[in-house]
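Section 3.1: Structural characterization of target chains.
Under the original work plan, the team committed to producing a structural model for every single-chain target entering the pipeline before any wet-lab resources were allocated. The record below documents one such target. The sequence was received from the expression subgroup and is listed exactly as submitted; it comprises 116 residues.
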Amino acid sequence: MISGAHVIVYSRDAEADRAFIRDVLEFPGVDAGGGWLIFKLPPAEVAVHPTDGEPRHEFYLMCDDLDAQLAELAAKGVEIARPVSEQRWGRLAALRLPSGAELPIYQPLHPVAHSL
């Protein structure tokens, strides 16, 4: 039986991005040894989209109220890398990680599977 999923985020400054996830996003985690942090994620879901290009993977955070979440993160000094845009499937923005990478976050307008 599959008991979970493991997401990997590649970073040019892994230590800074780990600290951001721990201290700013406040995700609990464990030390897998030698300071290598692995974080508990909120409930998750996976979607499979068709592509004509090379297969790739994406990672998005989800929230119930995007405006409130962005305001809370901005108050902690988080840079909003992409302002809110309205998509057919939800309201989308992105956070700037300390490494400079973007981390998308969205408020779904579609039914969610993570609470089934």
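Residues 14-24 form the longest helix (11 residues).
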